[in-house]
Amino acid sequence: MNATTPRIAVIGAGPGGLTCARILQRHAIPVTVYDLDASPAARDQGGTLDMHPDSGQYALRAAGLLDDFLAVARPEGQQMRMVGGDGRIVFDGIPPEADTAEGNPEIDRGRLRSLLLDSLKPGTVRWANKLTRVEPVGDGVHRLYFTDSTATDADLVIGADGAWSKVRSLLTNATPLYTGVTFVETGFNDVDTRHPRLAELTAAGTMMALHNRQGLIAQRNSGGHLRVYIAMRTEEDWHRRAGLDLTDTAGVRDALLDRFTGWSDHLLGFITDTDTGYTNRPLYALPVPHTWAHTPGLTLLGDAAHLMSPFSGMGANLAMLDGADLAQALIDNVTIDQAVNAYEEILLPRSVEAAQGAAEAISDAFSSEGATLVLAHMTQHH
């Protein structure tokens, strides 16, 4: 960057935004991150992530945090198991015992976020700052307005604000569309002691059972927790059509059991034995391809730029790679505009390719041949 200190605002304290902020600070470029949450602990951060060498781990290395990541990562979490609707194990991909950096070791989302947050200078993240609108004020400068009636100007606004990004609306009219698949999330605590049968079926990593456009996906998290996604190709408002109140745990359980009629009792325990109740999570994705015309003073990263189904396995990895690439472009180029242009030339084609792959993956998984197609993919990649 040139001698004039730019005002850089990152909207959203997710993995991508925090990665970008960390790398900028390592190179003495000031940055402020604004997040709508009241604190880092305001809400659950979600399940587990596998960090890929050429994206997530690459970004962590650029952030000077790769060794810290490897110290807490779970290489055993790479295990992928495929189970039939009858409860029979049809594939068990156990990772080789090797240096964790050679594979895709797992880390809980919350732990990854803490790793990034702890690396930033105190006060970098402004919590409880919910963005209400962004207005251009000339020469690439934008004014940010927040719900507490404060406002600030920025020379670069980085929209890292997720699926329903407010920053994105200044660049594109695209909005997320329902993929046709809904996950109903549930969880199990102290799983090895309290739910040994489910723990054994899941093993050390991820268990997936697919049949008749439905599925059960179980993920090991740290601390003895098992996170489960009950997946269905269904209407976005399936619960309303069924007259269900999503807070009625017994009613939701019975409706799910009805949909999974004929599945093995071994697998149905992932539905019935919940410790946490059920959370409805319809899956959305941005249209493919999603691009935008370069606009001075604005850009996007992560889900704001390329929201896609989790069946890509790349969401957080790409967000962190975006953050690293944008930070490096800001370090390498004289002006913000040159930097954003250079970044978007890398970002946009990469995002389109990844989003196309993700769309195909979720379509395949929840087709009539889903189990066969996913098994073929697992066999090829293990």
Brief digest:
The chain has 382 residues and is of the alpha/beta class. It has helices at 15-26, 56-62, 66-72, 109-118, 191-194, 196-202, 238-241, 249-259, 265-272, 303-306, 315-332, 336-365, 370-381; strands spanning 8-11, 32-34, 48-50, 80-83, 89-93, 106-108, 125-126, 131-138, 141-146, 151-154, 156-159, 177-188, 206-211, 214-220, 226-233, 279-285, 298-300.
Secondary structure: elements and pairs:
Layout: E1 8-11, H1 15-26, E2 32-34, E3 48-50, H2 56-62, H3 66-72, E4 80-83, E5 89-93, E6 106-108, H4 109-118, E7 125-126, E8 131-138, E9 141-146, E10 151-154, E11 156-159, E12 177-188, H5 191-194, H6 196-202, E13 206-211, E14 214-220, E15 226-233, H7 238-241, H8 249-259, H9 265-272, E16 279-285, E17 298-300, H10 303-306, H11 315-332, H12 336-365, H13 370-381
Parallel strand pairs: 1-2, 1-11, 2-7, 4-13, 11-17
Antiparallel strand pairs: 3-6, 4-5, 8-9, 9-10, 12-15, 12-16, 13-14, 14-15
Helix pairs in contact: 1-4, 1-11, 2-11, 11-12, 12-13
What does this structure look like?
The chain is an alpha/beta fold. It has two domains: 8-74 and 105-175 and 286-364, FAD/NAD(P)-binding domain (3-Layer(bba) Sandwich); 178-285, D-Amino Acid Oxidase, Chain A, domain 2. Helix content is 35%, strand content 23%. The protein has 13 helices and 17 strands. The protein has helices at residues 15-26, 56-62, 66-72, 109-118, 191-194, 196-202, 238-241, 249-259, 265-272, 303-306, 315-332, 336-365, 370-381, and strands at 8-11, 32-34, 48-50, 80-83, 89-93, 106-108, 125-126, 131-138, 141-146, 151-154, 156-159, 177-188, 206-211, 214-220, 226-233, 279-285, 298-300. It has a seven-stranded mixed sheet with strand order 5-4-13-14-15-12-16, sandwiched between helices. Helix 11 runs antiparallel to helix 12 (336-365) and helix 12 crosses helix 13 (370-381). The longest helix is centred in the last third of the chain and has 30 residues, at 336-365. The chain starts with 7 loop residues before the first strand and ends with a helix. The mean pLDDT is 92.
